[in-house]
Amino acid sequence: MTTIFHSGLSKDLSLILNDADDFNVIIQVGENENTKEFRAHSVILRARSPYFKSALATKWITKEDDMIMFNKPNITPSIFDMILKYIYTGELDLTNQSGDDILGLLIASDELLIEELLKHVQDHLIEEQTNWVQENFFLVLHTVFKLTSCKKLQDFYLNSICKDPQLFITSETFCSLDKDILYKLLKRDDFLVEEVDIWDCLIKWGIEQTSSLESDKTKWNNEDYEALKKTLDQFIPLIRFLNISSNDFFDKIRPYKAIIPHHIYDEVEEFYYKQTLPKTINLSPRITSTIIKPKLATIISDWIDRNDSTTTLSYNKYKFNLIYLMSRDGLNHITFFNKCNRQGPFVVLIRVQSKKIYGGYNPIGYTGRDHDQWLSTTESFIFSFENDQDTNNMKISRSINTNNSILDCSQSYIYFFSFGGMLYISGQNLKIGYNTSHYNNSFNACKLPIEEIEVFSIVKK
C-alpha cells in the first residue's frame, strides 16, 4: 500500500516559495501604485497551470540576466499572492477575503486555466458569499457570463433570476443587461413572466441598446425601425407570441410590425384572425416543471379541451401555476390540501422512481368542504408518460361519468386525492389501477415509490 505524505510536501514547497534563492521567474503584477514582484520557479508554474505551461515556452519569454521576466498588470498583488500559494502548496483560505477579491480570484483562475481553483471559487461564491453576491448582483452576473468555464455560476444565476423574474425585469439595470444573458433567459421555459411584459421589456432594452434611436417614437423613420430590428433580430423568435392576448397584440405588437420577421408576423396575425395554428413559431408555454417538458403541457391542455390527437398539437390556452411541490412543501396530506384548496381546477403530476410520469386532471378542484364527497364529472382524466418528453407511449383514461369520478377532498383525507380509486397516494407510494370501474381505459395495477409531485392550478388565458 502506498503511503501519502502530503502535509510535509506542502510545508516544504511553502518554504521554497518564501525563501528559495534558486528562483528563475520574476512576475510583476498589478498596475499604477498597486504593484508587486513575485519570485517563482518556472518548473512549478508550468506543472500547475496550463496557462504558464504555454506562456513560459521558450519562444514567448523575455529574459534579463537569465531571469524570466513576466508581467500580469490585470491581476492585483493580493489575488496573485493567493494563487501562488495555491500553486505551491494546494492551500487556499478565503475566510477573511473581500467579495471583490474573491471575484477577482475567479477571473484570474479562469485566465490561468486552473480548473480546480475555478470550481472551488464558484462553490464558495454560491455557498458562502450569498449576501455579497445579492448586493452586487449585476456586477457578478455580467462577470461570470464573460467566463465560459463558469457554467455552474451561470446556471445558479439564471435559476435565481427565474425564481423572481418580475423583480429582475423591472429593475433599473435591466436595460444594460448583456445580450447573451438576455438570450439565455428568453430561451428558458421557466422564465415565468407574462409574455406581453417580456415583450415590453425587450422593446425597452432594444431601444436602450440602439444608440441612434430617439426616446420619442413618433419621430422614428424607417431607418430607425430597421436599426431596432437589427438589435432585436436574434430575440424576436424567442417570444411566445401566442401567449399574448389579441388585445395586447393589437396595442403592443402591431405598432412594431416593422421589426418582426414577415413569416412570424404573418403566422401570428393569421392565428388571431382565423385561429390557424402557426407552423414555425414556438407554441410551447413557459411552465415551471421539473417533471415534464413544455410540449407535454401542451398535450395536457389539448386533453383538457378533449383533443386527444397524438399528432397535431394546438395552441395552449391555459396557464399552469405551480401551487404544490413535494420537494419544497413536503409529502403531507394536510399541506397538500391547504395548497390546493379553493384554487380551482388543477393538474397533478407524479414522477415515480423509474422516471415514469403519472398524473390527473381535476376539473372541479377542492371546494373547501368539511367532509369528503365523491362527485360525478365527464371532464376528469388520468394519464401517463414514459418520461419527461414522451409523446409516443403516452396513455390517457377518461371518466365515464359515474358517481365516483372525482373525490372532493377535505383536510382529513389522507390519500391526498383520488381519481375514482384509479390514481391516489398511499403513504410514500402512488397506487394506480386498483379500481377500474370509473375510467374508460384501465392501467395495470401497481404500487410505485414516489420521487416528486407537482400540482398546477389551471387558468384559461
TrEMBL record:
Spell out the PROSITE patterns in the cross-references. BTB, TLDC
State the SMART domains in the record.
BACK, BTB
Q: Name one Pfam family in it.
A: BACK
Q: Which residues form the BTB domain?
A: 23-96
All copies of domain TLDc, residue ranges = 290-459
Protein name in UniProt: BTB/POZ domain-containing protein
UniProt source species: Glomus cerebriforme
Q: What is this organism's lineage?
A: Eukaryota, Fungi, Fungi incertae sedis, Mucoromycota, Glomeromycotina
